[in-house]
Amino acid sequence: MIKLYDFELSGNCYKLRLLMGILGVPFERIAIDFYPGREHKSPWFLKINPLGQLPVIDDHGFILRDAQAILVYLACAYDPSGLWYPRDDARMLGRIAMWLGCADSITATASAARLHDSLFYDFDIDKCRAGAHALFRVLDEHLWFAEQEGNDWLCSSKHPTIADIACFPYVMLSEEGGVSRLPYPAVRRWTDRVKRIPGFMVMPGIFGASPAASE
Amino acid sequence: MSDAEEAIRLWFPVSRCEEIVPRNVVQTELLGQEAALWRDDLGFVNAWENRCPHRGVRLSIGLNTGSELRCQYHGWWYASITGQCTYIPAHPGQKPPNVIKTKRYGCAEQYGFIWINLGDQPDAAAVPVLQLDSYTTMRSVFTQAPVDLVAQSLIEAHNFEPATSAGNYILETTGPGEKSVLLLQPMNAEQTVIHGLIPSLVRDADRLSVLRQFNGRVSEMRDAIERAAA
To answer: Are A109 and A67 in the same domain?
Structure first.
């Protein structure tokens, strides 16, 4: 079974739980005391990930770090539909890579603001929040026009991709870092759609949605 | 027009109608008051103070079930239209007292927008009249600047003028050619939403490019206004 080195409150760990849950991939969670124990910086964990970061997976001895990289691996290895990471579609792969990069930027801003506010990290909070708002502004405009074109998802496809899973958690947790999503109504409609993907699961701070209206 | 006592009696657009989608709750703010907007499955749009009467949690994080809004905190149910609390999970056998109700704001649909009014006696006939035979609404643009500065910049630097006697909250382009109308939503002392429409119908084939061009123009103005406000 896949082992996930996990921290309950981490959005980057949660996105892997989310995709594995949606794909029906069984996994075992190995709880790392990220806070306050800083176990991800301990000598034993640095042998698993020298960067001292979560998450990491161990799939029968194949060890991989970096949440976005792991999403790519999981979709390629465990999604027989091929829809979450369409390997033969050059434009889709380009778009997905672009939004995976954006997910890292969201981590560096919205998630950093949350670490500052809730786990007392020493970050420049104004800069983190301003950076998050700049990204959310782009995201909202992108999603608004996607809706106008009849697309529900980040990568202009009829089916969600790992890009949606990658960007969702730290957008949804932004208010824990003092980043209001009130100015981003198209983002709210998209997060509701993500919450209605069959197999969706929650984490602390992220609630479910009401069921969609039956047609 | 910056007189808050005066403004509270006015109607303001707060969202495009079509963005109040089923089973969704929109969080917005008008004159410093947060509102939760949600459409029930029969199409009725509710505009409530964004505050659960029980513990004050934002209703906008709650669940729109199609007939009621359920608070995320203790699960109290509030019925569409009346705002009456209809169910308290901790007291499943008891009918909630009639006095437990959400605070409702005046709400109207006009010109493709949801308008709300925070006053005690909202009169839907007082929604501003725009002389429009037809219209197409554009993307609303959030702006980090107070409404007076936004209006002043649009008038002085971007060729807009007041379109109604309702002050500087509704502006239209000056001069000949097709007009653009901008409708300002004063969120609070620091933020304004610029809603927009053009007074005509757009052919389906042209719709996306018209939306993109309009959004591009308003976003450029927004950027200039924000630089001036910073």
So the answer is: no
ipTM: 0.95
Q: Per-residue pLDDT tens for A61-111?
A: 999 999 999 999 999 999 999 999 999 999 999 999 999 999 999 999 999
In a domain, A101, yes or no: yes
> Which superfamily does B4-126 belong to?
Rieske [2Fe-2S] iron-sulphur domain (2.102.10.10)
Taking domain B136-229, whether its CATH number is 3.30.310.220 is answered by yes
Q: What CATH number did the domain enclosing A163 receive? A: 1.20.1050.10
Of the candidates A149, A182, A213, the beta carbon closest to that of B41 is on A213
Q: Does B19 touch chain A (CB under 8 A)?
A: yes
| Number of domains chain A is built from | 2
Q: Estimate to the nearest angstrom the gap between the alpha carbon of A54 and the chain centroid.
A: 13
Instruction: Residue B211: list chain A partners with CB under 8 A.
Output: 145, 148
CB contact under 8 A, B66 and A137: no
Q: Which amino acid is at B219?
A: S
Asked if residue A207 is part of any domain, the answer here is no
Q: What is the pLDDT of residues B213-230, one digit of tens each?
A: 999 999 999 999 999 998
pLDDT number for residue B9: 86
The Cβ of residue B181 has, within 10 Å, a number of other Cβ atoms equal to 22
Q: What is the CATH number of the domain that holds A44?
A: 3.40.30.10
Q: Over the stretch A179-212, which tens digit does the pLDDT of each residue have?
A: 999 999 999 999 999 999 999 999 999 999 999 9
pTM summary value: 0.96
Cβ–Cβ < 8 Å for A64, A57: yes
What residues make up the domain containing A38? 2-78
Q: Does residue B1 have a pLDDT over 70?
A: no
Contact B27 A192 (CB under 8 A): no
The radius of gyration of chain A from alpha carbons, rounded to an integer in Å, stands at 17
What b/e string do you get for B185-212 counting C-beta neighbours within 10 Å, with b at 16 or more? bbbeeebbbbbbbbbeebeeeeeeeebe
Nearest CA in chain A to B216: A141
Contacts of B32 by beta carbon, 8 Å cutoff, 6+ apart:
B187, B188, B189
Per residue in A23-63, pLDDT (tens digit) is 999 999 999 999 999 999 999 999 999 999 999 999 999 99
User: Do A99 and A183 have their domain in common?
Assistant: yes
